[in-house]
Write a structure and sequence with these properties.
By secondary structure, the protein is α+β, with helices and mostly antiparallel strands. The chain has two domains: 215 residues, no CATH class; 98 residues, no CATH class. It has twelve helices and nine strands. Strands 1, 2, 4, 7 and 9 form a five-stranded antiparallel sheet that branches. A four-stranded antiparallel sheet has the order 3-8-5-6, with helices on one face. It starts with a helix and ends with a helix.
Length: 339
Amino acid sequence: ADDVVGRAVHFEPQPEEQQWSLDPPFDRTSLGIAYGERMYYSRRLRQPQPYQSLFYRGRWLPVEDLREGVPVSGWYSVRVLAEAKFRDADIDHKKMFGGTSLFDPNQPLRLVLEAGTLAGIDPANKDAVTQALVQHRSSDRLLATWDVPDDTPTWLEARVWLEQGQFPKFSFPNGPTGSNYRLVQYVKENIYTLLDKEQLAAYEAANYSGDWFHLLFFETPRIRIHQIACDGPIHEQWPPPSHRAIFGDQPYNSAAAGEVLRGFAERAWRRPVQAAEVASINRLVETAEQAASAAGATAEQAAQSAIKRGLKAVLCTPEFLYREERNDQLTSYEIASRL
């Protein structure tokens, strides 16, 4: 009830819309191939990284410029400039460990957007923070899925709800598996058949010793992310429709508490409601308002906090949580509630 009312009711001023336009590298935490790609551009080529790649399933690319999460809960526009590369790469997946990479070249490469959070994680525990950023957590929430066009950087967009403290993170769910180092081992064992003369020269000139640098020089299925943009929170009107549905278009004052509670209860209880049925909740609101005033709240603050407590109380009643069927003969409202 607290979460629902917190999302629906907004007495505060309209939050300012912010815009973020981000360039790679977006993930500055991951080791392995993501680290290798970052170092190749920053240390070897000494030039800005043009994109950041997702090579495998089971790894997430966090947007680290937003790792602390969005400042305000609300609707956000998340746009990502991405392209699929090497979907039809000349790779014999049957020669890999286990006889497969779990990759199907007949499917378009898919990019998933999730909402991640570092809430509840000790910032001093670097391992826990890293795992929360680059792995999936049970608290992460799926927001959008796109089929990524081949070989053409394309803007993909989704309008998504982000809670305060959540940040965007991306994954490649139908990419090759990285388990058992099967893809890295495969390219190492087939260097001279997979690389042409020019590619082989670049590979040998790099002279990297770490396994995770190898894939940079080979054509394996991957998604390249060139740019990420995020705008929000987006509000076409303020207060939002959820607030207006409860309080109407007029500013709330405590004299309207009974009518507000009755109207809200009719929606929550799925039937007509008489004023007497919400009288006890109305008294709760009056008591809460008096207590808030005594604690030093302004009249406006006291009225607003008290009515929110009353709305929560409506959502905790048996009439909302359960179907009411008081007689053998169902009323039309009880039938509708069943349906």
